[in-house]
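Hi Y.,

Following your request, here is the sequence exactly as I used it, all 73 residues.
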Amino acid sequence: MKENLTSENHREMEKFLSRVLDGYKSGNISKSDAVSGLAHVMAALDINNTPEAISWFNQNELDFFKDPTDISS
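Below is the corresponding structure, written out as tokens. Let me know if you'd prefer a different format.
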């Protein structure tokens, strides 16, 4: 059964997208890491894994976007 995003989830998603864009703009995350993370969330939604996408929306920091092999971060 497909689980749809609620109105609250949409608000969380908008905040999440703002954090990602602000993180890229400030240099806190690379363009590559931002694109990769956003693609991961979109893929979760595409396969109806709504709970995973919501868990990304609810992250307060962007550390989960950073490539652990990138020593420049």
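The two ends are 40 Å apart (CA to CA).

Thanks again,
Q.
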